[in-house]
Amino acid sequence: MTDVLQTDVLVIGGGAAGSNAALKAADRGARVVMVVKGLLGKSGCSIFASHLPYHDVSTEQKARDRFRYSVRYYNHYLTDQEYVKRMEHYMRTEFYNELERMGVYWRRTDDGRLLASPNRVPVLVVHKQGASGVLIMDRRRKEIRRRGIPVFEESAVTALLLDDGRVVGATVLDCRTGRFFVVLAKATILATGHSDYLASRATATREQSADGIAMALRAGAELANLEIQWWHISDMLSPRAWMRMHLYPNPLLGTKESSRLYNAQGAMFFEQVTHAPGASAPYVEQIRRLAREVTAGRAHWDGDYSTGYDHIPPDVIKAYQRQAKVWDKLGLDVAHDRIECGITWHMRQGGVNVDTMTMATTRPGLHVAGGIACHYLGGVGPVSFDGKVAGEAAADAARSTPAPALPGTAVEDEQARLFNFLKASATGLRPIEVKMRIRDIMWTLGYVKNAEKLQAALAALRDLRDRDVPRMRLQSSSKVWNTGWIDALDACSMIDACEATVRSALRREESRGPFYREDYPFVDNENWLCKVIVSRKDDEWHWRKEPYALPYLAPEKAREAFFDADY
Amino acid sequence: MPITSADIVKVRIRRFDPSSDTEPRYEEFEVPYTPKMRVLDALDHVHEKLAIDIGYRWFCGVQRCGGCAVRVNGRELLACWEPAERDMVIEPLQHAPVVRDLVVDRGPFEDRLARMQPWLARRVPHPGFPEPITHKDMAAAVPSFDCIGCLACQSACPVLDLGAATTFAGPALLVQFAQQALDPRDTADRGRIAFEEGGIFECISCYKCEEVCPVEIPIVERIIEPLKALAYRAQPDRARHANAFLRLLAAGPWIDPAMLVLKIQGLAAIRHPLRALKLVLRGKIRPMRTLFGSRATGAAAADVRRLLDTFDRRR
């Protein structure tokens, strides 16, 4: 008999969104259970947070800059502008205060002023630039422990349970012991992040295999703008583990300077303060400029270009920047040496379609929060706001929802699916090989897309699903921390999420922000300032468009060449 | 000779599945060296390219999550951060139960840490933002904020070899605890907790923790010593080691190790005659001198007494 836990609110995911959702739901008196695939506050991408936008609106100009940055440069107009207003209010009035009360220290000067960067969109950091996410998540982790909220760590949620179209909980596999159990919940919050370790070079963490996207898709939820996929270009080429080491292109604390990027011939081709002054996160403009270098043969997507801080006094870098350690560790001198870079698949603007007032999805009983949702690009602050909204809404909904019962045969079916993988064989295709192949397919698809490449990726993914997944065999049938078993589950999630992403990309017949189709090389605000929504029902794929309201800010041009646009 | 791309890295990994193995075994793999290769790159190669299902933990790969700490050739390190070596024996951390292969159970560590109340305690929280504090105010706590909780220091700590015979919580717990204990905003009785839950005076200041800390926290001087001072101030009578040390100093300008042990442990010290004999044979303690030797006097002794008087006045 499978163990069944009953709760009011189930939170899936242990980053900034999930942790705040759990805390806020508990604040409202709900019983909360958390399930985290990695370790609460240690896995996931929240620990990467460094520069947190400080929502300084002391003048009207500052408030306008701030809003414009969020809508135009961060989300390319693919966002709910009313949500942005609410989120910015939260950032201004709640986010920093609450974390400071929890023990987070925001860097001050020796005489006690907040040390914000002096550029147009100021940012705050904790004691050191590059360490914000680690400290914030550590405090949230301990706060959850203090409150006694039960957390199942290193446990993978494998499926959302549906009863008559309503999400009533999820099945869980404890990766440490192989225990399979069920959490029945009156409301479920999916907060699994961007979860984008889907290409050979990616900044996502190891456990991130887009399980949330895949589970939402299988549960019949709508997914929007999955194709709006960000790339970072100032990430290290080698060592391979350090492809997640982001050498920040944003302005440095205590100076108006930012790092510079150089092509293979040593010519500077990007500097934030020069080329993207309005954007605190200049990634869209960065990769467009790199694309020009690659086309001209002066750089590759993985190598032959570099970044450095050698134009900035080294004591400034060392005083504030955790990243300066990278140079030391490799025996390089930050005052002179540059580091070779490659692009990495970073995060996505899109995700599960959501009503931003409650963070409810198109599936009753299912809320989302943070990077997995479609409404905003992300960031530790905004996703914390999502967590608050989702946590409170889920707790309220739980009050008027009766305790769910175990639905039909869904649990047995899922158990059979999981334990079917647990077949050991001395030879055979290993699940990790399938995972590596998926990442290779998405890396090959890359930044420059067209219909032909997208169709080829779709066909390759279909082959994997039909031919290779059934052939997967494990080395051991142990239930204890069986890496192969988890890889097998990951591979299935990744194929679903990648297929949805490619299908969504095929539908969007324009280029926008980080999304570039060489067969449609223009920003088309007339026809494509909209959500591209995909869903799957009974193995049939569906899609539709939904335009955005533009109550406060609209693009000036109906249509412009992609490489001329600044957002 | 520096390692180059033409080289092969030999990796021996300690493997153990408690559900089927009676004892650990070592499996050997050959991994081609890649530019700037880290230990984690070698483990990833075994998993991703050789398709071996080794149990190992990591999340971020860039010294943030603290998940990948292991022992390589007997030394604790963060796999993602340290360079690969030509020959590596890779083993799980010590002083924690093994889940499988290189993965250890962090549960006991987390449970004990929770007993130390690792959250900011304040009688009256500051209502607004930003609270009027300066970077100088925070200077004592800041080094502890660098901690990523990787448990490398915990594994390297020789006091924890004593197992249940010591009450010492270990360096990793104390660094985590210092994040609140040394924060001027905190109002809990941290000195008492450092003593009762942390066993702070069991630390022998051997610096092994510092040697392996991947984020280079000066653990002994900036964490342990301030915590000892807090604990001493909270409960001076229970700081037996510090008090015995002070009394011996007051009596003469040098510390007799045998006397120190007797004063700290009292009669309990004679429960270990074999250990005492070993110490005598190795010349670590000299019983005849302890019993019959005369205390030195003169200028040095006067200096020590002057220092102790200053210390008393400051207290």
Written account of the structure:
The complex is a heterodimer of chains A (567) and B (315). Chain A has helices spanning 16-27, 60-74, 81-101, 132-147, 211-218, 272-275, 283-295, 314-320, 324-329, 380-399, 410-420, 431-445, 451-468, 483-507, 525-528; strands at residues 3-12, 32-35, 52-53, 123-124, 151-152, 155-163, 166-174, 180-190, 223-224, 229-236, 260-262, 268-271, 302-308, 339-348, 351-352, 366-368, 448-449, 516-517, 522-524, 530-537, 540-547, 559-561. Chain A is of the alpha+beta class and 567 residues long. In chain A, strands 1, 2, 5, 6, 7, 8 and 16 form a 7-stranded mixed sheet that branches. In chain A, a hairpin with a 5-residue loop joins strand 7 (166-174) and strand 8. The relative contact order of chain A is 0.17. The mean pLDDT of chain A is 94. Chain B has 315 residues and is an alpha+beta fold. Chain B is built from 13 helices and 7 strands. Chain B has helices at 39-49, 107-115, 142-145, 152-156, 171-181, 190-196, 208-212, 219-234, 240-251, 257-265, 273-281, 287-292, 299-314; strands at residues 8-15, 25-32, 69-72, 75-78, 87-91, 98-100, 103-104. A 5-stranded mixed sheet of chain B has the order 2-1-5-3-4. In chain B, a hairpin with a 2-residue loop joins strand 3 (69-72) and strand 4 (75-78). In chain B, helix 5 (171-181) packs across helix 8. The N and C termini of chain B lie far apart (56 Å). The model of chain B has no long low-confidence stretch (mean pLDDT 91). Classes of the chains: A alpha+beta (567), B alpha+beta (315). At the A-B interface, helix 3, helix 4, helix 12 and helix 14 of A face helix 1 of B.
